[in-house]
Amino acid sequence: MDQLLWRVLPLLTILVSFGVFFYLQDSYTAQFYALIKLPRDKCSLLPHRHFWISSKRIVTPQGIISGSVEINDGKIISVVEGHANQGKPKQEEVIDYGDAVIMPGLIDVHVHLDEPGRTEWEGFDTGTRAAAAGGVTTVVDMPLNNYPTTVSKEKLKLKLDAAEDKIYVDVGFWGGLIPENALNTSILEGLLSAGVLGMKSFMCPSGINDFPMTTIDHIKAGLPVLAKYKRPIVVHAEVQQDFENHLELNEDNLDPRAYLTYLNARPPSWEEAAIKQLVGVTKDTRKGGPLEGAHVHIVHLSDSSASLDLIKEAKSRGDSISVETCPHYLAFSSEEIPNGDTRFKCSPPIRDAYNREKLWGAVLEGHIDLLSSDHSPTVPELKLMEEGDFLKAWGGISSLQFNLPVTWSYGKKYGLTLEQLSLLWSKKPATLAGLESKGAIAVGNHADIVVWQPELEFDLDDDYPVFIKHSELSAYMGRRLSGKVLETFVRGNLVFKDGKHAPAPCGVQILAK
């Protein structure tokens, strides 16, 4: 009897271990939904946890395939060529999207959601609804224009609390580098330890009183801490110069309603001056350098000439540096902006058509690493639409929901491919923000997916369902675009379909470890 027991005991131990393992797996899943205080079926418009999606056009790291993606408990568990029902029937649900494109969800690393403190501008609810409707599955929220700004771990906690139970997509957070914390290692380390994905700084006035500008010396002071944590600094790279030196003193150019007045007030030399200072520092970020582990990322590049040349040269030397531009610089040109139409005001400004052509060339050649929206909404009274004063109006373009169709509509004329689109809006942003389980349709990654139809055209008019707050302030309203988003999945949850969102917001707050 004892001998039989000793033979059976190891087998029983194995069986119990398997039972405990699967119990815990289910328990962790249950704990997640308990943590967000919502039943699982409220998070998705689809009742299934384990299912397949099929299409003739799936954008994968290996290229575009006709195949199927298997999703279980929020993750991609297989990617196969051919229809999921091919061979033997599957027990799981199979959704066939025909020739619609299945692509990694977009990751927008430059978004101002303005909460807490300025929900009349945007807010986590409307902003992430807009993201989901646009196929954006992850956003990284900027440390301003919310109030208070996110410049310490205590201020980050306020933002995390404000976002709870409000986000329809995953949200990460940048911290703000300002003189106070740049020169105080304990504050900066506290913010990074609390989970921000990196730091944002302005080399010119930000327009927000509690987010003062930094000099290159402040950035130098903060970089050793960022190198230690291996997190990037993302920089608004303009150094302010004397306004009068850049205006021709004639009546037309001094008219504040004339776009040319504003354009001349922020010349390309502002960007060039800032980037020249930054590349003087990035040499130390090379392998073996004293700042190895730090990374400098330049946001919303507008100047495609001298400024871009400086970045290309720094990259060629092995500096850890990258750059983004935005759809509005690729879609619009200064020549077509009507006087008084302050919807088009942003910083740096939208430049001429020749500059736009060069920007597209840099995007397609890989010199510009990624795209972001710089979604920067406000309230109508600050945009000064009636006065049309470009010098006094709030600068920022509201665009989060339109990233995909705008980029595709204008980019396809330059030969932009689906693979390039995915690289610019998914893989490269994931790399910048350190999001290892996002940015590609690959086994083990989060099932963050957009299903869209590139050939489908639509008018962005009053009848189109727009979810950003104050949509009338967006420069894209009234445009005819190609590339309609059909459905959006975030961690396997179908969060958007046919103009409707999931019953409850179940996005996850992303914190660096």
UniProtKB/TrEMBL annotation:
<dbReference type="InterPro" id="IPR017593">
    <property type="entry name" value="Allantoinase"/>
</dbReference>
<dbReference type="GO" id="GO:0005737">
    <property type="term" value="C:cytoplasm"/>
</dbReference>
<dbReference type="GO" id="GO:0008270">
    <property type="term" value="F:zinc ion binding"/>
</dbReference>
<feature type="domain" description="Amidohydrolase-related">
    <location>
        <begin position="101"/>
        <end position="495"/>
    </location>
</feature>
<keyword id="KW-0862">Zinc</keyword>
<dbReference type="InterPro" id="IPR032466">
    <property type="entry name" value="Metal_Hydrolase"/>
</dbReference>
<comment type="similarity">
    <text>Belongs to the metallo-dependent hydrolases superfamily. Allantoinase family.</text>
</comment>
<keyword id="KW-0378">Hydrolase</keyword>
<protein>
    <recommendedName>
        <fullName>allantoinase</fullName>
        <ecNumber>3.5.2.5</ecNumber>
    </recommendedName>
</protein>
<keyword id="KW-0479">Metal-binding</keyword>
<comment type="subunit">
    <text>Homotetramer.</text>
</comment>
<dbReference type="GO" id="GO:0050897">
    <property type="term" value="F:cobalt ion binding"/>
</dbReference>
<comment type="function">
    <text>Catalyzes the conversion of allantoin (5-ureidohydantoin) to allantoate by hydrolytic cleavage of the five-member hydantoin ring. Catalyzes the first step of the ureide allantoin degradation followed by the sequential activity of AAH, UGLYAH and UAH which allows a complete purine breakdown without the intermediate generation of urea.</text>
</comment>
<feature type="domain" description="Allantoinase composite">
    <location>
        <begin position="46"/>
        <end position="100"/>
    </location>
</feature>
<keyword id="KW-0812">Transmembrane</keyword>
<dbReference type="InterPro" id="IPR006680">
    <property type="entry name" value="Amidohydro-rel"/>
</dbReference>
<dbReference type="Pfam" id="PF01979">
    <property type="entry name" value="Amidohydro_1"/>
</dbReference>
<keyword id="KW-1133">Transmembrane helix</keyword>
<dbReference type="InterPro" id="IPR011059">
    <property type="entry name" value="Metal-dep_hydrolase_composite"/>
</dbReference>
<dbReference type="GO" id="GO:0004038">
    <property type="term" value="F:allantoinase activity"/>
</dbReference>
<feature type="transmembrane region" description="Helical">
    <location>
        <begin position="6"/>
        <end position="24"/>
    </location>
</feature>
<dbReference type="Pfam" id="PF24890">
    <property type="entry name" value="ALN_composite"/>
</dbReference>
<dbReference type="GO" id="GO:0006145">
    <property type="term" value="P:purine nucleobase catabolic process"/>
</dbReference>
<dbReference type="InterPro" id="IPR050138">
    <property type="entry name" value="DHOase/Allantoinase_Hydrolase"/>
</dbReference>
<comment type="pathway">
    <text>Nitrogen metabolism; (S)-allantoin degradation; allantoate from (S)-allantoin: step 1/1.</text>
</comment>
<keyword id="KW-0472">Membrane</keyword>
<dbReference type="GO" id="GO:0000256">
    <property type="term" value="P:allantoin catabolic process"/>
</dbReference>
<dbReference type="InterPro" id="IPR056854">
    <property type="entry name" value="ALN_composite"/>
</dbReference>
